[in-house]
Structure formats: C-alpha cells, structure tokens
Amino acid sequence: MSSADPSTYPGGQINFLYVKSKVYIHPSTRKQDNLPGFLYVFKPHPTATNNELTLGWVAECNVDKSSELYRTLLHVDSTGNEKLARRPAAYGSFSFALRFMELYSIQLRTPHPGWWAGSIVLNSKSGYDNLPVLFFHDDESESTKKEMNARKKNFEIFGEDKELFWGGSMFLSVLKKWATLVRTTVDKSVYLVNPTQDDVNNFSPHRKNGLSAAEDENADKNKGKSGSNLFSEGVNKWFTETKWTVLDKFAQLTKLTQDKLTELNNTLSQDPYYNKLISHPEVQKQLNSEYGDMAKEYLAHWAMKIREQSNRSRRIEMSDKYRDLLVEELGINRGNKLISETEILNAYEGSREVTEQEWERWFDSEGRLCITVGEVEERIFHGGVCKEIRGEVWLFLLGVYDWSTSAEDRTIIAQTLESDYKLLKTQWQENQTAQDDEYFKDQVFRIEKDIKRTDRNMELYKRTTPDEDEELAITNPHLLKLKDILLTFNQFNDKLGYVQGMTDLLSPLYYLYQDETVTFWAFAKLMDRMERNFLHDQSGILDQITTLNDLVQFMLPALYGHLESCDSNNFVFFFRMLLVLFKRELPWGTFQKLWDILFTNWCGSQFHLFVILAILQKNEWVLINTLNEFDQFLKFFNELTSGYSEEDVDEQGNPISPEEKFDLVDLLTRAELLFLKFKSMINVIDLNTKPGELSPISDNLRQLLSKEIVIKRETKRVIG
Amino acid sequence: MSKSNLSKYKIVFLGEQNVGKTSLITRFMYDTFDSTYAATIGIDFLSKTMYLDDKTVRLQLWDTAGQERFRSLIPSYIRDSHVAVIVYDVSSKKSFELLDKWIEDVKIERGENVIICIVGNKNDLTDERQVSLQDGEAKAKAHGAKIFLETSSKLGYNVKSLFKKIAKTLPEFEAAGKSGEEGASEMIDINVENTTTQDGQCQC
C-alpha cells in the first residue's frame, strides 16, 4: 500500500478488515420488512489505533451493485482478506458507523434454529443513539456456512462457552483481535468492550440514567432488549424525582389506556347486533326490571363472547394489527420503549409447541442438555410442549431430574427414587399400628371419597363395570394407585397430609405417567410449589390473594376502583383458580399447556397471577360496564369456560372446541406483556427512588419478579 | 318490596365433606344425579327463580367446600345469608356429630337472623344407616332448626319438598305459610317441579 501520504489510504479509501453479508435488521415484525445488509469493520487510515477502528452496518439496497464498494464487501466477506474501498454512505435506512472507542457493550442472543435468528445488540457509551438489533441469518450467509462446515469437519461446533457457533459468536471472536471483551457476570450474554476498571468493578444495575442491557440485573438472557437503552432519555423526563409523581404518571398512562379501551369497545357498541339488542324496548325493559340481573349476566357473557370471536379473527387474519391493538390496549407505549420491540415480538410467537424432534435436538448423544436452561425455559414458555413429551419435560421442569444430568445419571436417579418410594410405602402399608391410627383412617376415608369423584369422565378412571358398587370397594386399578400415592404422600409429608384439591393436581400427573413411582415423585415436587395453597390457616392462599390485590391496584387501577366500589375487591372469586392452578376452569389439554408454561418460571414463579390479571384486563370493559355486585363477579369468573353453548361455531360454521373458546394463546400473550410492563414499571420506580428512601413497591409485588418458587410449609399436623 | 327489584335470597349449604351438598343443589336445579361430581373447592354458586302466585323470588344457592381448612373463607358468605342448610350423611355418624360445629359457625356470624335447616342426606343407604331419623329430629329441635328433613339426592326423595319448605320461610311467602301451615304447600308452584314428585313425609 504505497501512498504519498502515509497517514491516509490512496484516493480517500478506507481498509475493510471484516465484512459479513446477510446481517439483517428487522424494523417490524413482518418478514417482508426485514432488511439485509453488511456488517463491517474498517480501518480509517493506516496509522489508526484499534480504538479508532470503525464498526458499521449498511443496507444492501444502499450499496450500488455495480460499484467497487459492493465487490469489495463481497470479497472481504468470502475470503476474509482485507481490502481497500471507498467508505460506505453514512446515510440510508438504519445505516450506522461508530468507532470502537464509542462502543460500550455487545449482547449476544443465540439463535434457535427454525425459531428465530441469532442477534447482537450494540450499546454505545453515549447510550442515546438508537442502534438497531442485528440479526445473523446464518443460513443465507455463504461465508458463515463455509466456516461452520469446516468446524464440523473438525468437530468444533461448540464455542468456548459450549454454545453452538453462529454468526454472532464468530463475529465476537473476530472482534477480539482488536478489542478487549469482558463478559459480565450479571448477564452472561453481555460483553463489555474495552471496559475501564471502573466499568468492571462498579457494575451495578442502576448505573447512569441510561440503563444498558448489560447493567440491567434482571435482563433475561437472550431476551430482547432493543439496541437502545431500555428507557430512553425521553422516558426519564417523563418521570420526575418523587415516586408519587411516578405513580401518578402511570395512572395517567393507564387512563390513556382506558380511553383506548373504551374506544376499542365502541366497536362493540357499533356492532349492529349489539345495538339492535340493547335498543330493543323489551331488552331495555328487562334491564330495568326485576330480571335486570339476569339480563346483565347474559349481556356480560355475550359481550365477552363477541370480543373473543373478534380477537380470534383479528389474530388470524391481521396478526400485525392485532398486535398493535393489543399493545395499545395494554398501554404499552412503544415510543417510550417501556418494553422493547423484540420483547413484544417474542410474546407474540407463543403459539408453537415444542415438538418431540425439537426436544431431542436439545440433548447430546449422552442425553445431556446442550443448550442453556434459560433457552429451554424461554422456548417452552412461548408455546408449551406437545403431549408426547409432556411427561418427560415436566420431570425436568418440576425438578425430579436436574437439567445437568446425563441419560445415565437419570437411570441411576430413577432407581434410587424407586427404592425410596418403596420404603416410604412400606412405612404405612406394612405397619398395622400406623393403619389403626384414627388420623390415618380419616385420611383413607377422605382420599377414597375424593378419588372416586376426580376426573371420572376420563377413560382411564372410569368404572371397571358400569354397575360396580364403589361404596363397597374400588376396583379400577388406576384409582387404587392414586390412593396408594396419596397415602404415601400423607406419610412423606406428614405435617401437611392429604387435603382436598390434591387429587386434582395428582390426576393429570398420573394420566401422563401411569407409573406409581414416577407419578409420586413428580407429585411431591409439584407439591413443593403448591403446598402453601393447602395450609391449614390458609395463609399461603391469602398471601396470593393479597398480592393479586396489590397487582390489580397497580396495573388496572380503573377496574380496581370499580371492584372496590362494588365491595368486591377481596378477590376470593379466584380461590379455585389459585388452589388447583386452573385445573377446574380449563379443559384438559388447555390447563396442561398452561402448566407447561407456569412450570418454566420464565416470567417469575408466580406467573399464574399475571394470567389472572390478564383475565381481568381482557374483560375489563365488560366488568366495569355490566357488573356491579359481588355475586355477579363470582358467577362471571366461575363460568369463564362454561359460559359458551355447545352450538358455538366459527365463521365457517365449524364447531369451536373448548380449547379454542378459551383462547389461551391470547390470554398468555396479554399476561406476558403485562408482566413485561410490570417489570419495566418497577424498574422505573426503582430508578426514581433515592437510596435509603422507602420504596413504594411492596415486597410481595417485588417477589413476582423472582423465579424462585415460593415454598411455605405446614408447621404442624392439624386434623381437618 | 319494590316491583322493579326482584328479591334475592341467599341460601348457603354447609356440612362435612361428601355429605351431598352439591348433589342436593344439582338435583333441585337440573333434576339429575351424578355420584362422581367433583369435590367442591372454594365456593360455587347457582341461582334459580321461583314463582308463587304473582310473586317471584330469586334463590341464590351457595355451595361450599366441606374440608375444615377451607372454612375460613365461608364466614363472608354466611354473612348476609337468609337460610343456612346444614347437611349430614345418615350413613356417617361423624358427619352428624360435627353438625354442632357448623351450626355454631352460622350462629356466630348471623345470630338469630338466619333460618337454620338441617338435612340428613343419603337416606337411600338403608343398610349403612348410622343415624336414626329420631336422632336427627332431636338434634334439629335442640338447635331450634325451622326445618328438618331426610333426603336422597340419588333418588330425588324429598328434595323438592326441601326447597318448598325453604321458600315458605322467606318473607315473601311467610303470610301464606302462617295462614295454613301444611296446606300452604299446595299454593307453591316451583317452576322446576315435575308432577311425579316423591314428596311427602315432611318431618317437621
């Protein structure tokens, strides 16, 4: 490279050190909007230091295909050799370029093949420039495919952290030639670029007002944060110093939502059928008559049904619009970046269940998990699992097997569990004294009564002969196994013992395994999470009702106000949903899918409270406008799934199954977005709470962010 | 009672597990019986409109869980109830002995402002009977229960009669009830009533 001026390259060119083609920007959730481009690193002049190297991206459409620049970009990408060319234009869609010294951190978000592409999030030191998230479409990049093949030949398909190689991780290893990258401990997916000692030491969640992904302690691994900081300067201006103003602002925000909601529901009142019905003199008379209550209940269900149907068609036919409407309805103001686009996008991809093949791909030849637990949890959270693998998946999710075990380890564990169970069972089964105990006899009586009336419509649990007299003896072998499991549990957790409602939790597990030992241990693990619901003093369930009360007050103040004015803010109508985790409210397949999601703890171990919050949010208009008494609310929630008639048909006249009617996907989407909104609100309030100042966020609300299951044990045995 | 506002009466069903509270309600509401009806957890509630002459009332039937630990929820439901139906199982002495506790709970919440009704259910289980009719009557008398009946939800025995008697005690029908005691029942027309009732044998 001979040049008259050694401090510049000839002809004002720059030197491309690295180029990767087919690196995309996803400006919206529509595939057709995805923008392919080149990610590059160049040296601006021959004497430039590493800190002066420039990292940038330019859209394919902004590079003339006949230009020298285009050929150079392709050349550097395919050969890996550096080459001189003119500088890419700094203008154009989403193009950016910044010097290494301006880079603060890089977050790597690993791909899920067939699910989403891997991406990187760049954060600059200024924190304010909006750097787009870069997606590596590895299957389209020739150079990446070539390198992967080469690695496969050498059996080097895993990177240093045992993660699969992909475009982003390769980029990172190239970057290491020119910059020091320090992986953060708070979020292992984040690398600091040339950090100062202070950056490394003072790594706290509340550094600067621009909260970068790296600093966000709660940042979910691989979970989308937009390229910019979670809260832009604009948002911070919104929230002034005092916490009360913050809360006040949120109230305003929610009021905005309320207006939107009203607007949305005006569509309902514009519905010709609704208007015809409501304006009919007979209906008016009924509404004001002694039958007003019944008419109201009917209207409430009818309105809910209309909404459900229109939601469903909205989602199927206009998924983008549905998303926009929902985001607006939930008061997630996109401009304010309370929640990033990627997070919103992820929440909407929640309808594809994990298949057997996908599940198997997650394990290596020794049966050891080869992706991270976080990835597994996030994936299962967004879609649940298919019924063929549900039993196995639950053993991991519930903690019977640790994720780190190999297939061989699990065989050994299974043997231990088998002998442990036998031993426990012997303790009561071969012990006459134990069996003569009054408490034990009571429990046998209770258990027998309850298993005879649990899920008897299922083929597995039906009577062996139709005219069998079960008052004399139970003969269905599966019921007898349920009985043995519950009596052994009664022995195993002797302080808690058997309590009504447990058969509802046990029966779905037995149905999956149809094996006494495996079912017992899965049940015992499930009971760790559920024990607090069954305590004699009911404190565990009351804790949840209290938390729900706080949560509704915080997230849906208008509805809370209405419930309060109707003396119905005690939320006891959710008792049954809480006690047996929606088992009674939802059809068989639907609650199992919901359990898949809840067991991941991905959005906290108490995500079921957000599901209830979503039910309230979804029906907010109906609840505020048509119901005003405690018993009406109770009836409404008790009949959430039974409020539909057998004749319900869709637009094409096909019958709608109960699963479709309940529309779990819609509810879970709402629940996740509400969770994300909640999390952001807590973050903002924390940022605005001065050190030493009492936080307005109650501990029980804060606990909703925790993934640890809440365990509360019975302290002594109480009869009854 | 204003004409534009239908009177609602709240009736709570209490008693030990598996004595047949839900079955009684289901028999009255739908005239069906299913021995495999899932145990009630939390609170369930159904409402039914009853007609008598030109009067109409709405009955709210509140079904509760029997296990003791779920009882802490119940007081709020008892609070504004008009009638408490306390059920035992004639084939379970224990469920009968525990009646006292339930009656006490009701009295603590409502004092004398509630009509107590004691029902011995499952009287079809003749071979397994552990509580005699006389014992039941004596207990009802001792507690000042206005109504005592033995029923069988399984056979539909005395169930409609039970609800007729309950209706008779409500303010709307009180006049009719007082004017002709036994004869009053002929004036009551419950809309779910079939002609082929197995009513009769009122025990009080």
Description:
Chain B: GO terms for molecular function: GTP binding; GTPase activity. Chain B: Pfam families: Ras. Chain B: Keywords: GTP-binding, Nucleotide-binding. The complex is a heterodimer of chains A (720) and B (204). Chain A is an alpha+beta fold and 720 residues long. Chain A has 3 domains: 10-179, Roll (PH-domain like); 225-398 and 540-694, no CATH class; 400-534, putative rabgap domain of human tbc1 domain family member 14 like domains (Helicase, Ruva Protein, domain 3, Orthogonal Bundle), CATH 1.10.8. Chain A contains 30 helices and 10 strands. In chain A, strands 1, 2, 3, 4, 5, 6, 7, 8, 9 and 10 form a 10-stranded antiparallel beta sheet that branches. In chain A, a hairpin with an 8-residue loop joins strand 6 and strand 7 (118-124). Chain A is elongated, with a radius of gyration of 29 Å. The model of chain A is unreliable at 202-265, 313-318 and 643-651 (pLDDT under 50). With 204 residues, chain B is of the alpha/beta class. Chain B has helices spanning 21-30, 75-78, 93-97, 99-110, 133-142, 159-169, 171-180; strands spanning 7-15, 43-52, 55-64, 83-89, 115-121, 147-150. A 6-stranded mixed beta sheet of chain B has the order 2-3-1-4-5-6, sandwiched between helices. In chain B, helix 5 (133-142) links the parallel strand 5 (115-121) and strand 6 (147-150). The longest helix of chain B has 12 residues, at 99-110. Residues 177-204 of chain B have low confidence and may be disordered. The A-B interface holds A 288-294, 446, 449-450, 452-457, 470-471, 499-501, 503-504, 534-538, 570, 572, 575-576, 579-580, 584, 631, 634-635, 638, 718, 720 and B 3-6, 8, 17-18, 35-39, 41-45, 47, 49, 56, 58, 60, 65-70, 72-73, 76, 125, 128.
